[in-house]
């Protein structure tokens, strides 16, 4: 039976449209770090590079390779950790997408070892050249204690959901341990109306 993260990991990926506290364990990802406006073509090329690697792992059996512990699964969604550049923060500049700093990523199943991830990276880079492949890393990340909430609507309206989350933190005496935040993209903006797009927004909290 295929592993479906939407069903097996609802607590992490399908939260309600209200603030919810959650503890996120260690997870492993293909990642790319970058900066600048995500509406530019370069960002789209970075996403394409990540998806090529993610589907490379998923389709390994069709290439005659069955990794130890392999199981059928649905490829995980694109995620991103976002903040502003140090210069923008230090100068107190008004929000400008050009000042964004990000790490975008796609989670990989537990059977994926570093050796397997790097092997797949080399094989897919040869078959599907992309200049961003050189910037892809395989990393283990632990979000730990977090506050998350489902945002429904355009990305540019996320500030409304963040305001609700910030009020919840103040009311429950919770403190963010970092300035950045995580976003998990449950909808494909190419196929979904802006008002129907679903995104998980997550703050990193102090223990």
From TrEMBL:
Residues 18-199 form the GyrI-like small molecule binding domain. It comes from the Bacteria. InterPro entries: GyrI-like, GyrI-like_CCH_Lin2189-like, Reg_factor_effector_dom_sf. This is GyrI-like small molecule binding domain-containing protein. It comes from Enterococcus termitis.
């Amino acid at each position: 039976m295929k592993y479906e993260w939407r069903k097996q990991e609802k607590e992490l990926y399908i939260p309600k449209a209200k603030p919810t506290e959650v503890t996120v364990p260690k997870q492993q990802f293909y990642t790319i770090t970058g900066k600048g406006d995500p509406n530019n073509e370069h960002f789209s090329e970075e996403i394409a590079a990540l998806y090529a690697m993610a589907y490379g792992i998923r389709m390994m059996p069709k290439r005659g390779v069955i990794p130890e512990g392999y199981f059928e699964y649905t490829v995980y969604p694109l995620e991103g950790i976002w903040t502003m550049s140090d210069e923008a923060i230090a100068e107190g500049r008004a929000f400008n997408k050009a000042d964004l700093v990000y790490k975008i990523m796609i989670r990989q199943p537990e059977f994926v070892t570093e050796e397997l991830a790097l092997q797949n990276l080399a094989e897919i880079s040869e078959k599907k050249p992309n200049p961003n492949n050189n910037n892809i890393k395989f990393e283990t990340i632990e979000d730990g204690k977090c506050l998350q909430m489902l945002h429904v609507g355009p990305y540019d309206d996320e500030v409304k959901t963040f305001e609700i989350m910030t009020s919840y933190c103040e009311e429950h005496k919770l403190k963010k341990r970092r300035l950045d935040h995580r976003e998990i993209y449950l909808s494909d903006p190419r196929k979904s109306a802006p008002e129907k797009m679903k995104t998980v927004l997550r703050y990193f909290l102090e223990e």
